[in-house]
Every structure is written in structure tokens, then in C-alpha cells.
Predict the 3D structure of the following.
Amino acid sequence: MKANETLHPSLNEVQLGVWRIVYTRPASVVFNGRLPLGQLKKAHHYTRTYIIPFFRDIWLVLGAKLFLLFVSDQIWTGIRGALKLYLLNALMKEIEYSFIASRENGWAISRVLVIRLGCVCAEGMTRWLHDKYSPIMRTRIKLHFKKVIMRAHLRLDLQTYSNAANRPNIKGSRTWNVFHDLVRSTAVASSLLSHIALILELARGERGGFFFAIICVSKPIYMFITKDDMWSNKFIAYATNPNFLRSRDLLSLAIEQKYKQEVLSGSLEGYIMNEFDKANTALKRTSDEFPTEAYRASRSPFVGICTSLLGDLPLMYYAVNAIMSPNTLSISALAIHQQTAVSIHAAITRITHQGSSINKNLNHIKSLYDGLNVRNSIPDGKLPYPDSGSPTETGMAISVRDVSFQYPGPSGTRFALKNVSFDIAASSLVVIVGANGSGKSSLVNLLTKLHYPTSGTILVDGKPMNEYRSRDLRRGMALLTQDHVLFPISVGENIAIGDPDCEDGPKKYECIQAAARLGGATEVIQKLDQGLEDMTEREETLCSSPFPLPPGPLKEIAEKIERYTEFSGGEVQRLVASRTFMRISSGKVKLVVADEPTSAMDPEGELELFEALRKVQDGMTMIFITHRFGHLTKHADLILCLKDGELVELGAHRELIARDGEYSRLYNIQASAFAEDLLPVPGLDFSVPRSRSAFKFEPNLDSES
Ligand SMILES: Nc1ncnc2c1ncn2[C@@H]1O[C@H](COP(=O)(O)OP(=O)(O)OP(=O)(O)O)[C@@H](O)[C@H]1O
């Protein structure tokens, strides 16, 4: 936010040291004579749509017995404090009475003692039950909601998924905490109510007791009233001080690994330290404490002094009372009142904390259930693919009719594609070229139904794409991009997952080996300790003590557990390409799309991959995106040349060279750099450069044309 921007009337702002805090104004607490109907309606809607389904699901997962056990345990936890205080009060009174009256009072004391002991035993018993059954309940709830959340994530298409608001913003492990927190609110509420009941009960039995009770609860009430609104409302805090921001950036330059190489090679150590000192000197005495700390330091001492004085008020009252009219209040009453006041204070504090955590928890539940009901933005059809009308022996035929496309959300403000039309014949080899940002990837995202055109139509085998079942259509496609990654599973499964329907057995193993060969990954796998069984990177599994492990056998075990194989960018692309060949081996693929899948590969690997793909092309349409003009462009049946989201040229290589337009311009930029260095290579139907590190392109094409 800029300094001169005016603030919305619903917001307040305050500067604390280097931080600017903008927060929503607290809602008016003054009752204006009308029921806050809007709020009530909202609460009703929330309860019906989110809270009841959440608790119903948990009831079903836990079963009635465990559910009720948990809830009653929480209520008991809430009231047992007040009950114990009540019994303590009774006990102290009886003891006091026997002292003052110098009379034996054994029976009454024993009776109260036995009840209190029963209460303490019940407390121990419920704690044991809680410890025994909580892990069972926690596991059941977590597992159930993990599955629900996974399903909610998996069912969303890419276009819908890219909007973070459509994704459940909660982890399975968090659901237990949400449930626990919500039920704990009943414990806090019952604790507050039972302590209030206790203090009223105590007040009833003493002369002046009621006034004394009010004095005892004055501190928690005062703290509740003077509670700070800023942090309990929605707020943002952002650093505005340029010197603070600079010193923070310089710190990250010094300590973050990603900058290390450049800092070292540029000998920037001295510069960074000097600049850091300069920024800190310029910061002068402006506090860079975290906003909450800075706020605490900025508060007036008045509230703190009043709070402490109110805490001591019961003692003062008792002392004055003892001087003025002795014997009106008992010592035990003072102790119990004080203790009750402390408990009420604790309950009120917990209720205020609970308020913000309830809000957070309700938002988690909302995002969970909303996530389950989000409608995918890409329409799904009913037709199976390939349907009875599609030719079985040939690849996918595609027609793009006047398609324009704009990415959803704030980032997609301009059209990535504008009025694009073309036809791709079944089983043809198509290459898409164009400068960076010209719309190549966006186009294949539409052809593979990962995104959906803003306007226009795409026909697949003569029928609109959205008439087919998305799942079937995607099964008939294989997409290979430079961004594809290895999954956190074994290397073998990373390849096998290309054809998830392939049944385990020797045939599957052979298919994996063949796919690895075609993807150029055989050597990569041979280098691994456990071959196909090797694990790729995975989520951390090690849980160790918070102290750093000293060198020794324990550390060695920990290192072994954390070990996984790291692959270079080119090796990852070879393994991912193998996955695509595995997919192709399923026999269901009718369209292969490769979006610069060899960007990190060496020239030999790239050449082999393109050759392997062309060899298996039979019965499939293939679309390649490339910046490198050469083997692919020469053999392409159709080249689509994009510029600024528009299809500016289409045709075969020679036609486009002859046209002397955008394609020819891009081609000549590359060709001119290497044309003189090329020699024909025997055994290949096109020439490759003499040097393996040289950029490959197709020689003599101009002269041929
Ligand atoms: N997820 C996205 N959200 C919003 N805009 C996007 C998104 N992806 C791409 N764009 C925009 O769409 C336009 C076309 O991008 P696209 O990735 O299709 O180009 P490209 O030709 O594949 O580029 P490159 O050669 O660099 O891979 C660009 O202006 C880009 O900024």
C-alpha cells in the first residue's frame, strides 16, 4: 500500500517501529435495539453447512461410544476444577470450625475428605481414559479426513486448482486439532460457568460475601474489558522502513545457500557487510521488533498497574474488614475466593484465545467442505474416448476453431491466445514454434484439456472436446514437458506409473525396462545402488531429538535413513520420458505432446529421444514444442508458428522457409551461427554438428529448398 493512499473507512492503521499495521475496526459492541440478524443468519448457515456435517462425519468415524466419551471427558475437565474448590472450601470450613469451636468434628471432615478423594480418583481415571483412547480417536479422524482431503484435491482440474481458494486449506493431521479445539470450547465454557456458580454459592454463605465475590472477579472482568482489539481483529502487518528492508535483504544474501555461489564468485562479502552496517546505522533507534512485541512495549503502564492492583483488592478488602469488624469473613473463604478468581480469570483468558482459534478452525472446516463441493471449471462430457465413431488404428485428429484463451485469475489479464484456428490430421507429426511467451505451452494446455478455451471450439475426431469424458480423453494422451517431475516413490514406480493399469508381474518389469531404454534412462538406472528400487527424494521421515546429533553410530543411522538419490536435470528428463514411453506402451495413447522435454538433456540424448518417439509414432498424433530447429522441423507434417498469441504461419518446413516470414526469421538466427561448421554424418538421414556440444540444426535446408 502506498503512503498517500487513503484508508478504507472500515480499517484502522498504526505504525509500530518499522511495521505498519492495518486492521479492521472492531465491530460496535453497543446494542442498537435491533437483533444482528445478518450475523445470526450467517451463524445458522455456518452451523448447517459446515459444523453439523463435520461433527456428523466424526460421529460416524468414531462411533457413538468414543464420541460421547470424548465430549463428556471435556465437560468433566471443565467442571472438575470448580468441584474440587467447592470440596476444598467445605473441608477448610469444617477444619476451621473445629479449631474455632474447639470441638471434635471428625465425621464431617472425613465425609468431605472421602468425597474429595473420590473426585481426585475420578480425575486420575478420566485422565487415563483420555490417554488411552485419544490416540485411537486421533488416528481414525486423521486417516478419514486425509482421504477426504486427497479426494478433494485429486478431483479438481488444473484450471480450477490453480485458484488457491478452490483447494482445501487444511491437512489431514490438522482435522483432529480442529475437532479437539472445538470440543475443548465446551470445557472452557463449563469451567467458566461452574466457577461463576461456585463464587455465587460461596457469596451466599458469607456476610458481605456477595460484595467480596464481585471484588474477586473484578480483575478478570477488567482484563476482559481492556483487552486489546487490534490483534483479535483481522490485520496485516508489513515492513515499510527501507533501511530495515535493505538490512533484511542483505542478511538473506549472506545466509541463503541459493546466493552463495554468486556471492563467492563476485567477492561480495565485504560489500554485503558494509551495506548491512550502513542500513542498520540509518535505522537509528527505530524498533525492528516483531509487531506484537513492539506494541507491548508501546502500551501505557496504566493498564498493567490497574490489573495488578485489582488482583490484590480481595486481600486489601479482607484486611480492612478484619480491622473494622473481625470474624465477618473466614480465612478459608479468602483463599477459596482468591483461587476461584484466578480460575475465572484463566477461563476468560482461554475463552478469548478460544474465540480466535474457533474462527480459524471454522475457516479450516469451511475450506474442507467447500473444497469437496467446488465445481470444476472445465466441462466434462459423457462420451467415452475413443468412441465407436473414432478410427482405432490412427492417432487423434484435432481441429481448433477460432480459439482464444485468457488464464483465469488476476495474473491472466491478457489473452495468451487469440483467434487461433488450424487442423491436425490424425497420425501427423506437428511442431509448434515461436518466441518466448508466444503461447505455445498455452496451446498444448488447451489441446490436452488441462485448460479450457475462453472462446472458440476444439474438435477431437470431429466432435467437440467437451462431449468426451475428460478422464478417458486424458487417458488417450501422453504429455511430456520440461516441468514434469519425479514423484517421491521408487525409480521403477516412477516409470511404471505411466501405465497405472498395467498389472504387476514379469511383463510389467519388461515394459519398464523397455520404456527406460526408449527414454534413454537405462544408464541412469544402472548407476543406482538399488536400480529400479532406489528412492527419489521424499518427504522427511526422520524424527529425532531437538539436540544436534554428535558424530557416531546414531548419526550414521540417521544419515542412512535420510539418504535418497539425487538426479541431474537431464537424468530427471530421461526418467520422465521413460514414464511417457510406459504410457505409450499401454496402447491407449492416441496423442503425444512433448513441450520442450529435452531442455536439460545433452544433444545426443535429445536426438535419441526424438528418434525413439518418432519410431513409436505409429497410430498416434505427435505434437512437439521446440525452440531448436532441426530434425523435428524437417520431418514435421505441419509446423505452427505463433507470435504474441496469434498463429502467424502454418505449413511444412520448406513452405515456411520459402514464405520468408517469422518462421524463416527464427530459423535463420540459428542456422547462421553454425552453417559453416557442419559435416554430413553417415547413417543418419540428416546431418548433425561435428562437435557434440554444438547446437544442432538442420544443414543445407535453404539450399535444398
Ligand atoms: N499460469 C499462467 N497464468 C497467467 N498467465 C500465464 C500463465 N502461463 C502463461 N501465461 C502467460 O501466457 C502467455 C503465453 O505463455 P506460454 O507459456 O504459453 O508461452 P510459451 O510460448 O510457451 O513461452 P516459452 O517459450 O517461454 O515457454 C505469456 O504472456 C505468459 O505470461
Observations:
- Residues 243-276 form one domain.
- Residues 106-154 form the longest helix (49 residues).
- The pocket of adenosine-5'-triphosphate is lined by residues 407, 411-412, 416, 434, 436-442 (CB under 6 Å).
